[in-house]
């Protein structure tokens, strides 16, 4: 009994330490965002600002086009999430249900696709987008994000498809439904939590992505939020800490809000009551 209690206490302590480890950067970012310059320069920093101010937020909006950059990030992230899910859903269905060389090759491509670093991909992607006239454009960036997130999206959705009982599809086939009708009317509704989780992954990946946006977007009116944040750092590497923290705090809010809104669908039972035993 004592061993069980000690083990459970250790688990809770480890979980608490992990939560503190994850929350510390974000909480410190919030603290900096509301501190006046005098407190930022203090040799004895405090967690809670003594004289909280919104001047850092005002200065951040005055110095950089945060709203326009946020709109660019939203368009790129939302477009990449929607397109990736539309492409990955039927492909994942085929990968999960078909057993053959094509399915094995697709699975291998998923694994290999996750192993390529950004640096090896940026030159061929840049040349392709240049030939298509999509350099320095949000649609071109969306195309890159779709290609980058598609392998992992396929891997996620294929696992959800395998969890759907084949009996449901066989029953639909007996009623005369074809493969496409079965996917749309039977399988896809049961994949809703998986589709939402995959779309969330693609959205957050695109929203937070920096390297591709830095290379492909040249003019300030096309740049996304992660790129605009670098403008708060001077040529000598000296950061305008208060406005930078305020802008970074605002840039993290959409991801947190999206996750908070749909986390119940992600953790909910995917097939609860679908098949009676």
Automatic annotation (TrEMBL):
<keyword id="KW-0472">Membrane</keyword>
<dbReference type="InterPro" id="IPR000515">
    <property type="entry name" value="MetI-like"/>
</dbReference>
<feature type="transmembrane region" description="Helical">
    <location>
        <begin position="12"/>
        <end position="34"/>
    </location>
</feature>
<keyword id="KW-1133">Transmembrane helix</keyword>
<protein>
    <submittedName>
        <fullName>Carbohydrate ABC transporter permease</fullName>
    </submittedName>
</protein>
<dbReference type="Pfam" id="PF00528">
    <property type="entry name" value="BPD_transp_1"/>
</dbReference>
<feature type="transmembrane region" description="Helical">
    <location>
        <begin position="108"/>
        <end position="129"/>
    </location>
</feature>
<feature type="domain" description="ABC transmembrane type-1">
    <location>
        <begin position="70"/>
        <end position="262"/>
    </location>
</feature>
<keyword id="KW-0813">Transport</keyword>
<feature type="transmembrane region" description="Helical">
    <location>
        <begin position="74"/>
        <end position="96"/>
    </location>
</feature>
<keyword id="KW-1003">Cell membrane</keyword>
<feature type="transmembrane region" description="Helical">
    <location>
        <begin position="244"/>
        <end position="262"/>
    </location>
</feature>
<feature type="transmembrane region" description="Helical">
    <location>
        <begin position="141"/>
        <end position="161"/>
    </location>
</feature>
<dbReference type="InterPro" id="IPR035906">
    <property type="entry name" value="MetI-like_sf"/>
</dbReference>
<feature type="transmembrane region" description="Helical">
    <location>
        <begin position="182"/>
        <end position="207"/>
    </location>
</feature>
<comment type="similarity">
    <text>Belongs to the binding-protein-dependent transport system permease family.</text>
</comment>
<keyword id="KW-0812">Transmembrane</keyword>
<dbReference type="InterPro" id="IPR050901">
    <property type="entry name" value="BP-dep_ABC_trans_perm"/>
</dbReference>
């Amino acid at each position: 009994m004592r061993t069980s209690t000690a083990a459970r206490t250790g688990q809770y302590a480890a979980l608490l330490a992990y939560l503190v480890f994850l929350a510390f950067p974000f909480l410190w970012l919030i603290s900096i965002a509301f501190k006046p310059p005098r407190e930022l320069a203090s040799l004895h920093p405090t967690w809670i600002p003594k004289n909280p101010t919104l001047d850092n937020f005002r200065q951040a909006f005055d110095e950089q086009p945060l709203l326009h950059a946020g709109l660019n990030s939203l368009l790129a992230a939302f477009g990449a999430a929607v397109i990736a899910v539309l492409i990955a859903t039927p492909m994942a269905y085929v990968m999960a249900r078909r057993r053959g060389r094509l399915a094995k090759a697709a699975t291998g491509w998923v694994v290999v696709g996750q192993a390529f670093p950004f640096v090896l991909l940026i030159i061929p992607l840049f040349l392709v987008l240049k030939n298509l006239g999509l350099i320095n454009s949000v649609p071109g960036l969306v195309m890159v994000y779709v290609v980058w997130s598609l392998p992992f999206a396929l891997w996620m959705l294929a696992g959800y498809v395998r969890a759907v009982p084949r009996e449901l599809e066989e029953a639909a086939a007996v009623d005369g439904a074809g493969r496409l009708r079965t996917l749309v009317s039977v399988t896809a509704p049961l994949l809703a939590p998986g589709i939402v989780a995959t779309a969330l992954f693609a959205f957050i990946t695109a929203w937070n992505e920096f390297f591709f946006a830095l290379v492909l977007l040249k003019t300030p009116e096309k740049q996304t939020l992660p790129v605009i944040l670098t403008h708060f750092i001077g040529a000598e590497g000296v950061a305008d800490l208060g406005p930078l923290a305020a802008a970074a705090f605002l840039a993290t809010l959409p991801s947190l809000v999206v996750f908070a809104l749909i986390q119940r669908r992600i953790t909910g039972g995917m097939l609860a009551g679908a098949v009676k035993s």
